[in-house]
Specification:
Layout lengths: L1 E2 L24 E5 L3 E8 L10 E8 L7 E5 L3 E4 L4 H12 L4 E4 L10 H13 L8 E7 L6 H9 L3 E6 L19 H10 L3 E3 L13 H16 L5 E3 L5 H8 L5 E5 L1 H5 L2 H5 L16 H11 L6 E3 L8 H4 L14 H11 L6 H13 L7 E6 L8 E2 L6 E2 L9 E6 L6 E3 L1
Parallel strand pairs: 1-4, 6-7, 7-8, 8-9, 9-10, 10-11, 11-12, 12-13
Antiparallel strand pairs: 2-3, 3-4, 5-14, 14-17, 15-16, 17-18
Helix pairs in contact: 3-4
Bound molecules: N-carbamoyl-L-aspartate and zinc ion.
Length: 422
Amino acid sequence: MHVRTAPRRKKPFRSIAGSLLLLPHCWTPEQSSPEFICFSRLLGPTQGGHIGQRSEVCIFSRESTVNGMLTIRRPDDWHLHLRDGAIMKAVLPETVRHFARAIIMPNLVPPVVTGADATAYRERIVALLPDGADFEPLMTLYLTEETDPEDVAAAGESGLVKAVKLYPAGATTNSASGVRDVTRIQAVLEKMAEVGLPLCVHGEVTDPAVDIFDREAAFIDRVLDPIRRATPDLRVILEHITTRDGIEYVKAQNSDMGGTITAHHLAINRNHILAGGIRPHYYCLPVAKREEHRLALVSAATSGDPHFFLGTDSAPHTDRNKEQECGCAGCFTATNAISVLAELFEKEGALSRLEGFVSLHGPAFYGLRANEDTVTLAKGAPVSYPEKIMTPDGPITVFNPGFPLHWSVSRHDLNGETPTQG
Ligand code: NCD
Ligand code: ZN
């Protein structure tokens, strides 16, 4: 095949969600590299593939930015802790600035267990939204061994609740009322499968004999896979995946299985927590693992595989509660998660797949429409975010990725006027 021309497009090719939706049909993919993808098309009548047949080659940059700007559909957060009262009031604006919707975790004290609890919590969230915010809290229920399948089904069918959360009892913050014996929730899981309500899973065993760094892998074997086999029609999300084992398990499953990945687990490994001094603001659950696991997470998040989507697990705790003899688990990332992700995706040559990860795969899994409005990321001098968010209960430290963030996020307000930056 003769290459007649190899014109490089003046303007970088810009794709939607990394899928090459804008390509005309007559172009066939030929070769690709992390930076470029090459397409060819035949010119003139086909001559049975004989030498001499002319074709034209066009190379498109995979880079999806135009003049250092990237516009994507507004992201959603598929795992978020808002807490309640004064803390919620302080942290809500941080999420609303960049995200359109979020799956709201139910681990309050006491937890959000019934449909009535979820209705009340939703009203408290909506009452504290900043003026003019268009943000939709997607409510969840906290699964206990006493959960009533009919209450769950009614909350799901009415549209109030979008998922049910399984915390193994004692696995993490406010999980004491969680599940000890999964066989005792089988009736609820079957009902959820019947009404199409997904199960969000905190994937760690609590067996003290299992090393904390192995608890996710043990959970997959001992709990997750048995749940999948016992209830194959249940849609399940393995949340905040931290291991290669978690990634490989989810990847091998059908489209009824999804996995969320946080920004902080993509940015740090366990050395960040423990080497050169103990850093409580990097401590969260599941705890960050070895570098090889972080690399597996980065590879999955940037791969374009629709099994994987963003759930920040942004989990605010005051500095007082983090910096003490027995500090709380949780990283607070709502403020800068999108900038952190843009930096990481750019480093992987995968900016064109950022939209899939933060804005498309999640709604597709949950059977919801992707957001119509957009945010624009712009590359420039390092962006500064506040180090702390002030609350009446004391400051909350914003996650520090340990590298400069060059991508700012802006959003045109509803009237299409001044963009809000952050
Ligand atoms: C979360 C919290 O603080 O509520 N903490 C955390 O480390 N991620 C709970 C959780 O999701 O495990
Ligand atoms: Zn969480």
